[in-house]
Specification:
The protein has 371 residues and is an all-beta fold. The protein has a domain of 125 residues: Methylamine Dehydrogenase, Chain H (7 Propeller), CATH 2.130.10.10. Helices cover 1% and strands 45% of the residues. A four-stranded antiparallel β-sheet has the order 1-34-33-32. It is globular.
Length: 371
């Protein structure tokens, strides 16, 4: 009788919990206390994954003669909380552990931890193209049609500002909530947050935006572009530069607050620039090579909020973690569907990932792994 060999376990098998969804993962988002992960699929369905884990890695680690080993999980991950939201386009955290979600029918919904629709936070009979919630001020920036709305939640009315060009799917608050960035098809505009929505800075973009991200200190804005690289804006001085040497669209950008580094997808390795010497005069100024050069493109990146690691997902499904500026990297997931989303918890212990085949996973790293 032929004896079948047991396949070798990967780090992903040992550290991750994963769930299968009915369509490609569009977006993932942790709530404000990192107890839930919201998952939106391309079909508009929205579900929550519980962060509580009955079999954390620390409970499965044994040490024998100084050698640590980790045992595989024995049970299945807790099932997802399936919400009744249909046609969801985007999601963000909200206060009290809940979430905000925009759907196809218009308006902005507040969801409880249990996945129930608690209220309609912003009511309108048109689809919400984009929105962002500011945890510091509890205000919400909402793009509907060719208008930006500034909504505080205390007043049913909202401040409004007209947007030039086509409607945007990209809006973002600076961390302190004092400024709001909106990337339309042709322009990037920074508004002062509040009842006036005064435009502060406006520049033209050479291509449609695919991603938009403020640095944690509010000094810089990065816009990933479709086929034209990356636009970097000094939000205080109004200077900008386009970093165009990318072989693929820049669908994902991230900032390392600790290292003061901008990191981008769209290349065959993790691309980065130090903002201590920003690349305004020369694109190579401040450039940092991180991780290894691969044969497939990096599609998604996410920096640890308070660490020096960055996670990168490739189009072959591989997910790696690397120290910024180092050629070393740790393969967390060796293969799978093209990676569409990555996000860390605030403590940098958990990494969530989603892919184009509908798989969503949470990898939990034991403290011993990075010592």
């Amino acid at each position: 009788m032929n004896q079948q060999s047991v396949p070798d376990l990967t780090l992903f098998d040992l550290l991750a919990r994963n769930w299968q969804r009915p369509a490609a993962i569009r977006q993932i988002c942790f709530n404000d206390d990192d107890t839930l992960l919201a998952v939106i699929c391309a079909d508009g369905s929205l579900a929550f994954a519980r962060m509580a884990d009955n079999e954390p890695p620390e409970a499965r680690i044994t040490v024998d003669r100084g050698q640590a080993t980790i045992s595989p999980r024995q049970g299945k991950a807790a099932p997802l909380i399936i919400t009744r939201v249909k046609g969801a386009r985007s999601v963000s955290l909200h206060r009290d552990g809940g979430f905000l979600s925009a759907g196809a029918n218009g308006g902005l919904l507040r969801l409880s931890r249990a996945g129930e629709i608690a209220e309609t936070l912003f009511s309108i009979d048109q689809p919400v193209q984009a929105f962002d919630y500011c945890a510091a001020t509890h205000a919400t920036a909402i793009v509907v049609g060719d208008r930006l709305h500034f909504h505080t939640g205390k007043d049913p009315s909202s401040a409004k500002a007209n947007l030039p060009g086509m409607a945007s799917e990209h809006v973002a608050f600076a961390t302190d909530g004092t400024r709001i960035a909106v990337a339309t098809e042709e322009r990037l505009i920074v508004f002062r947050g509040g009842s006036e929505l005064e435009p502060l800075v406006g520049i033209y973009l050479p291509a449609p935006p695919l991603s938009l991200k403020w640095s944690d200190d509010g000094n810089w804005l990065a816009v990933g572009l479709d086929g034209a690289g990356l636009c970097l804006l000094d939000a205080n001085a109004g200077r900008n530069v386009v970093l165009g040497d990318f072989p693929a669209p820049v669908r994902s950008v991230t900032w390392s607050a600790q290292e003061k580094v901008l990191i981008a997808a769209g290349a065959y390795r993790i691309a980065g620039w130090s903002m201590k010497t920003p690349p305004f005069d020369d694109n190579a100024t401040g450039a940092l090579a991180t991780g290894r050069v691969g044969l497939v493109l990096v599609d998604a990146v996410a920096a640890q909020p308070e660490g020096r690691l960055v996670a990168a997902g490739r189009s072959n499904g591989q997910v790696v973690v690397a120290p910024i500026g180092s050629g070393e990297e740790l393969v967390v997931r060796p293969a799978g569907g093209p990676v569409t989303a990555l996000q860390w918890t605030r403590d940098g212990r958990h990494l969530a990932m989603g892919d184009a085949l509908g798989n969503v996973a949470i990898a939990t790293f034991p403290a011993q792994l990075f010592k």
